[in-house]
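Protocol step 4 of 6: structure prediction from sequence.
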Amino acid sequence: MLRNGLIILTALLGVVFLAIFAVTEHGPSQSADDHSTDNFGTIQLLTTDLGNLSTSKFGIICGNSNGEIQIFASASKNTKCTTIKLSNNPISACILEHNNILYVGDESGIFYAYDLNAGLKWSYQTGNKIMGAAVMVNDMILVGSYDQKLYAINPDDGQIVYTVSCGSYINGTPALSASGDTIYLGSCDGMIRRIDTISGEITGQIELSSPIPASPILYDNILYAITHNGTLVAISTDRFEILYQNKNPGSFTASPYPSGQYIFLTDTQGHINIHSRHDGQFIAVFEDEIEMTPLQASRSNQYYAVSSHGKLVQYTMVKNHWQRQILHDFKTDCQRSCILFNQICFITDDSGGLYFYEVSK
């Protein structure tokens, strides 16, 4: 009996050894393990729905559904939040900060300039809601509205310098050339327009035959845009002509995210599609089983996105193979992209919560 027991024990040890060897030898390409440490936390909970996050010299800044601006000076559980009552309507757009002045539009179409030292500087009523961020160029503020117009505004007094009619809703932010003399703007009439920032003249346009629901992105002198029906377009800014276009299944409402040799496209089902930035060819898809918010954050060869249920995921290219790692499960419902600022990922949830995870550790 003792001999039989030793044989059984030896066999069991052999099975365990083989299992360990198999995992070590091949290594799982995906891991569901939670690698959380003390480098994460909650900044605030259960307040009011937050708008899109943006960064400033003061820290993380955003609007909320109460028409307030909130400024978070650091990423810690004891972070001081400065709250400014600005509007009676929700503020979803990213906020532009320039020389201690905050510029943002609300969902009733009012665009504000708020001096952090002196209070409200001026406001201007457009004809419909403002969902995209403003840009500053040539001593002007440029912002699009759902009233189908691009506005150029004097930042000193709020006077209109010029407007550009764009045929349909403007949901995104203008892409600004490095020289500052040109912007590129998409709208829901399916047009990409090239506009002279000094005069407001439309100097070129390309029809894409489907609404452009989010901001076009300028990267390495190439303009990338995605249409609602899934057409990825790369446009040469030198010649203002299409370099390539590639049709994707599904529908899209988020901007493309070019980074390195890749472009990331997140569809409305939460699938993250990876394409070659060189020619637009499809490479792979992340997350065909769980729903992700749009991937819009990266550093080096690491890319970050948060799931609709609060899982912060890191994707890394290692030896021509994508590896997936869940950094932390915040166990909350999310709709907006996470952002990366000073090596810290910031995540908002659907109940006004704000969370952080330091990825540098």
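Step 5 (inspection) to follow. The longest strand covers residues 321-329.
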